[in-house]
Each structure stands twice: as C-alpha cells, then as structure tokens.
Amino acid sequence: MAGHDYLTGRALHELLDLSGLIQVTGESATGQQALQQVKDEQPDVVILNADIAGNGMAEMIEGLLTVDENMKIVILASDSSPEVMDAAYRTGAQGYFLRGAILEDLAAALRIIHRGGSIHPTFPASRDTGRYSSEADEAIRSRFKSFTGRDLQIIRGVAEGLTNTEIAGPLHLSEATVKARISRIKRHLGVTNRVQIAVQGAQAGITASPPEN
Known about the structure:
- The structure is a single chain.
- Helices cover 52% and strands 7% of the residues.
- By secondary structure, the chain is mainly α.
- It is globular.
- The C terminus is likely disordered.
C-alpha cells in the first residue's frame, strides 16, 4: 500500500487482514519509499493513493510498472471525475476505488484484479445536466460499431480475464488468431493493454460492469 496517511493505511490493513484473502506485505508514505518497497517485496498488487506526495498519479503508475510490468495497480482516490479515472486506466491501473466506497468486498475485488480482471466505477452523470454519462457512453459505444460478432466475443473474454487459449477454445479459433485479433482491437480502440479493452467494453455496455458500491 503506497502513499496513504496513517489512519487510511491502518484501516486498509485491518480490513484486508480480516478478510483472510489478502496478505499485506508493506506500507509506504512516499513515492520513493513505494518504489523501493516494490523492488524489495515484489507484491502482486499495489494500492496506490492518487495524491501520493511528490508524484503525479500517472508518473507513479509508470514508475511502478517499470519495476514490474506485470504488477497490478489499484488507485484509491477522492476524485470521481471520468477524466481522472480514464487517465489512471490509460496509464496501466486495473482498478479505481473512491475513498467513500470502500466496503468489506474490497479484498474480493483485489482477488479479481490479481487473477487478471478489472474493477471500475460507472461514469457519474453531470450534477447540472445529467448528460455527461450518456454522451460519454455513446462516444465510447461508437468505437465498437465496426467490430464483428466474433470480435465482441473476444472482447468479452478479455473482460472476464481469460487467456488467449481459453478464449480460442469455445470460438474454434487458434491461439495465434485470437492474439492477432486482440492486437487489432487494441489498435482500433487506441489502447495498449487488455485491461483498457475491458474498461472501454464496460463503458460501452459490451461487457458487464461490477455493481456499484
């Protein structure tokens, strides 16, 4: 856990310990401490405070992934704006949690992320007009209109955290074909990894979103 104040860090530690599902290997208060601790501990998942002192969120995510490109990163933030969430996912985060929405199922969500899934909130509507969510979703949905039915099945498999082999079997495709299609899907959506495919799929209504807390 990186960049949390003492009380938040203690609360998260106790919450995760009580779940029996997650072992907390370390806590750090600054970006430099976090990077060093990640090198030493090699954790599977890092919970990162978006406001970590001395580092921008995107820069910190990139720094952690430089240490281990396979690491799963979860953001804990007070900002629920779609722009901030998008920035986190584009940089490589697999989850985005709001401070006021941390419940007892946090540990289960981290397990999903550890197994290759992603957790993301639904974009909120504008406080003034209520239009932001529908406009944002429609813009994202338009990116999926040119995909074939087979492409959409592959996207759903990616969102479920399936491997290329697991996706290929039921579709009677080779693993190489699935890999090539996923590469084409990423280029079309303008993303760089499977998590970002899943995020856009959920925002477009193509894949299922976890229920809001």
